[in-house]
Specification:
The chain is of the alpha+beta class and 481 residues long. The protein contains 17 helices and 15 strands. It folds into 4 domains: 120 residues, N Utilization Substance Protein A, Chain:P, domain 4 (2-Layer Sandwich), CATH 3.30.1480; 66 residues, Nucleic acid-binding proteins (OB fold (Dihydrolipoamide Acetyltransferase, E2P), Beta Barrel), CATH 2.40.50; 140 residues, K homology (KH) domain (GMP Synthetase, Chain A, domain 3), CATH 3.30.300.20; 127 residues, no CATH class. It is elongated, with a radius of gyration of 41 Å.
Length: 481
């Protein structure tokens, strides 16, 4: 009677490719529950099932109490029967008595079969869970099977079903039934409904894994993907490097006539991919990341985590990108906030900041004991009448004129744009001269004045001061993954 059960165990194990222990444990649990229910075996009496497939052996043992006259065969046995299975039995002791499997009725066998099937399903799910849990963030092939609302159901190569939620789908993908696509496994879990495998087509790691698949040097770790910044379906930036100076990481990834990168682009349904050379110098790396735009200068503001990027005027829109995309991806890739300026805008910004410093020094170092309009006497093109109107407009000191700027001067009656620019230029030169000459010649003041002069008028010597060197910001640490 035991042989059919043992043969069934072997067939299920081989057919479902399950571990032998999983199948045997499922069978033991099913028989135990079926015997307990049909024979009304109390919970505190043990039912032991031993299976040895190699010896074709199936043994069922039920724990029973030794009594003088049994009235419940399910858990009691007389002393004569107990003597057949143990030495020196005593009343009140418990002994394990073997029973035949044919003790189960048809309904009992049907119950055991149902429990066994459920156990096998759970065991299969658990084995698949353990298998796919190790495959998280790896690529898998799948065939589109069906749709439910906006969710795509995918059959993986070993016939396991997975889901592709709407948020993980690429707009450009073709999810017609029967289409074969590469996916990234992003989550594996077991819930009340069974095994759940969640796939993605939008995760940045998908790009990294496609590079590894299509570029042998990356698979062999001769070239490494440092990081990926991605706006799914639109554009990605991939930073790569090689420790071997004889290997060009960019050329390696592009491939002969662009064949390798084009294969990856096809896998992502036409997503544009920029390959960026990684550089430990964060300034150079940011400059590289803004490709295809040409960068003039990168300045780092360490405290704010901001990189100020200066580009030629004709490169400004290219550096920012459509809708700011190029700048956003560069920020994701580098870990720095990116502020992009044209050369003219940046020069104007720097001049304005320098003049504010100069005006502050002027205010703190000069005692203005003259009449309010005395400082205007040496300004070419400004007579007594115009000087009076400037003062009446509230611009009664060089500092206030610097703060008001050219637009503020144009508010004065009789002052047009050209005259305002002329007055403003002369006043700023006056402020600069007084700020530098009138304050005591302490080292810190001289250094500050030299920095201001260089910012406004340029450094004619072409050399850096000590303060310039000390002002050079440290590089923000960049994770070299």
């Amino acid at each position: 009677m035991a042989e059919p059960f043992l043969e069934a165990i072997r067939e299920i194990q081989e057919g479902k490719e399950l571990d032998e222990k999983v199948v045997i444990d499922a069978f033991k649990d099913a028989l135990t529950k079926a015997y307990r229910r049909e024979q009304n075996i109390p919970k505190d009496f043990d039912v032991e099932i031993n299976i040895d497939l190699s010896k074709n052996k199936l043994e069922i043992l039920v724990e029973k109490e030794i009594v003088r006259k049994p009235f419940n065969d399910a858990c009691q046995v007389d002393i004569d029967t107990a003597e057949e299975h143990t030495v020196n039995p005593r009343f009140g002791e418990r002994v394990k008595i073997p029973i035949k499997i044919d003790k189960l009725s048809r309904s009992g066998l049907r119950l055991a079969k149902d429990i066994f099937s459920d156990n096998i399903s759970r065991g299969e799910q658990r084995q698949q869970y353990e298998k796919y849990r190790e495959k998280e963030l790896t690529l898998v092939n799948g065939v589109v099977q069906r749709f439910r609302e906006k969710t795509v159901y995918v059959r993986l190569d070993d016939k396991v079903e997975a889901i592709l939620p709407y948020r993980e789908q690429l707009d450009a993908d073709d999810y017609r039934v029967g289409n074969r696509v590469k996916f990234l496994i992003v989550k594996v879990s077991i819930n009340s409904k069974g095994l759940l495998i969640v796939l993605s087509r939008t995760h940045p790691v998908l790009i990294e894994k496609l590079f590894e698949l299509h570029i042998p040097e990356i698979h062999d770790e001769l070239v490494k993907v440092v990081d990926v910044a991605r706006e799914p379906g639109r554009r990605s930036k991939v930073a790569v490097k090689s420790e071997d100076p004889t290997i060009d990481p960019i050329g390696t990834c592009v491939g002969p006539q662009g064949s390798r990168i084009q294969s990856i682009v096809r896998e992502t349904s036409g997503e544009k991919i920029d390959i960026i050379p990684y550089d430990r110098d964060i300034r150079q790396f940011i400059s590289n990341s803004l490709s295809p735009a040409k960068v003039t200068r990168v300045s780092l503001q360490e405290d704010d985590g901001v990189a100020q990027v200066v580009v030629p005027e004709d490169q400004l829109s290219l550096a920012i990108g459509k809708g700011g995309q190029n700048a956003r991806l560069t920020a994701k890739l580098s870990g720095w906030s990116i502020d992009i300026y044209g050369e003219q805008e940046f020069a104007s910004l720097q001049s304005d900041e320098a003049l504010e410093v100069a005006a502050s020094i002027f205010k703190n170092t000069v005692t203005e004991e003259e009449k309010p309009d005395d400082f205007l006497q040496n300004i070419k093109g400004v007579g007594d009448s115009l000087a009076a109107r400037i003062v009446d407009a509230g611009l009664d000191s060089p500092t206030k004129i610097v703060e008001a700027g050219i637009e503020g001067l144009q508010q004065v009656d009789g002052v047009g744009k050209q005259k305002a620019e002329n007055i403003y230029q002369q006043i700023t030169e006056y402020v600069q001269e007084v700020a530098v000459q009138s304050r005591p010649r302490e080292k810190s003041v001289e250094e500050t004045a030299e920095q201001i002069k260089a910012s406004i008028f340029g450094d004619s010597s072409g050399s850096k001061t000590d303060s310039d060197e000390s002002a050079e910001p440290e590089l923000k640490p960049f994770k070299d993954s």
